[in-house]
Specification:
Helix content of chain A: 40-55%
Largest sheet of chain B: 8 strands, mixed
Shape of chain B: globular
Structural class of chain A: alpha+beta
Structural class of chain B: alpha/beta
Distance between the termini of chain A: 51 Å
Order of helices and strands of chain B: EHEHHHEEHEHEHHEHHEHHH
Radius of gyration of chain A: 21 Å
Number of helices of chain A: 2
Number of strands of chain A: 2
Distance between the termini of chain B: 53 Å
Oligomer: heterodimer
Order of helices and strands of chain A: HHEE
Helix content of chain B: 40-55%
Shape of chain A: flat
Chain lengths: 82, 271
């Protein structure tokens, strides 16, 4: 730190970057945590089936279970290449 | 009725053992009969931090295996009248801890009149950490204002509320956040996560903020829990945390830097 830094009021961005990154990853991990354990296996199986026909990578498939009161919706998102 | 409190964090090196030593000492100093158990099988260190390493004869695993009685294994603290330490074993494998065995020891401590049982968890989310948290009524999650520690704390909070005995019974483990190694100067410069940020991300009630303080290393070097250092900021912050655990309303201290004049700062840098 140089002498002149004592007079500057430039605040570091480090903490706000950390906070933002943490908020995203923690929200992501919490949403996965609340899902049943079979969901990951299901995602793998679905991917294997889709891959028989289309060449996709791991990130192109998303499986989510959403609960609404007394019913649940299984949401499946497959991004197919152009 | 004994209260079982786990000191946990997920990440290693954030201050679980230091905090276990300080808080169990504080509870005992307040007149409560307290036991502190080292769950870090194979890597015990609580004995060293509490300066009873040369008095260990029997350990936690010996008691579980019936090779020693609880009374034989408990080490009476030399500084606090009401404090007893149950050391971890150094040589056995970590699977020596069983749910039944741990439950038996906790029940025996409760029957013996212990009011607080502090379970010092090992780092990670393996068997030892799971055993330390399984029977907890309350959890103190120790975190540093740093990304990996905060993320791991959130993982541990998730495990507490899904895998503990309380969770299995449809209840919640009461959570407390203990933020350690806090540096208000760096927070003010925007270099370190502020206590409010960590509280917001983890959505957990704040038990205390322990400032980064040279007294903590000094305390472990000497084997005197830092809470005994009444002059130190860390010692005072731990005392405040203990008071909050006992239901007192105490304002948080040491959250802002001591503002020094320019000349003082320049002087300190050259000193």
């Amino acid at each position: 730190m140089s002498f002149l830094d004592y007079f500057s009021h430039n605040k570091s961005q480090a903490a706000s970057i950390a906070k933002e990154r943490l908020q995203i990853i923690v929200a992501h991990e919490r949403s996965r945590r609340d899902q049943p354990e079979y969901l990951e296996a299901l995602q793998k199986d679905i991917m294997a089936v889709v891959r028989k026909y289309v060449d996709i990578d791991t990130d192109s498939i998303e499986v989510q279970l959403e609960r609404n009161g007394d019913y649940a919706v299984l949401e499946l998102n497959v991004m197919l290449p152009d | 009725m004994a209260k079982v409190i786990v000191m946990t964090s997920g990440k290693g090196g954030v201050g679980k053992t230091t905090s276990s030593a300080a808080i169990s000492s504080g509870l005992a100093l307040s007149g409560h009969k307290t036991a502190v158990i080292d769950f870090d099988i194979g890597l015990r260190n609580l004995d060293l931090v509490m300066n009873c390493e040369r008095r260990v004869v029997y350990d936690f695993v010996n008691v579980i295996n019936g090779e020693a009685t609880l009374r034989q294994a408990l080490i009476k603290d030399k500084r606090c009248e009401n404090l007893y330490i149950l050391p971890a074993s150094q040589t056995r494998d970590k699977d020596a801890l069983t749910k039944d065995g741990v439950e038996r020891v906790l029940k025996e401590l409760a029957a013996d009149g212990f009011e607080y049982i502090i379970c010092d968890s090992p780092a990670g989310i393996e068997h030892g950490a799971f055993m330390a948290l399984y029977f907890a009524d309350e959890a103190i999650v120790v975190a540093n204002p740093e990304v990996s520690s905060v993320r791991d704390s959130d993982r541990i909070l998730g495990i507490l509320q899904s895998k503990s005995k309380k969770a299995e019974q449809g209840e919640r483990v009461k959570e407390h956040l203990l933020l350690t190694r806090y540096n208000p100067e760096r927070v003010e410069k925007g270099e370190m996560l502020a206590v409010g940020d960590v509280e917001e991300i983890l959505a957990t009630k704040l038990l205390g903020v322990i400032p980064e303080c040279s007294s903590v290393l000094k305390a472990s070097n000497q084997g005197v829990p830092v809470i005994h250092d009444e002059e130190s900021r860390a010692g005072q912050a731990y005392s405040d945390a203990v008071k909050r655990m006992l239901g007192e309303e105490v304002d948080h201290r040491f959250l802002t830097p001591d503002h020094k004049g320019l000349f003082q700062r320049l002087f300190r840098r050259s000193a």
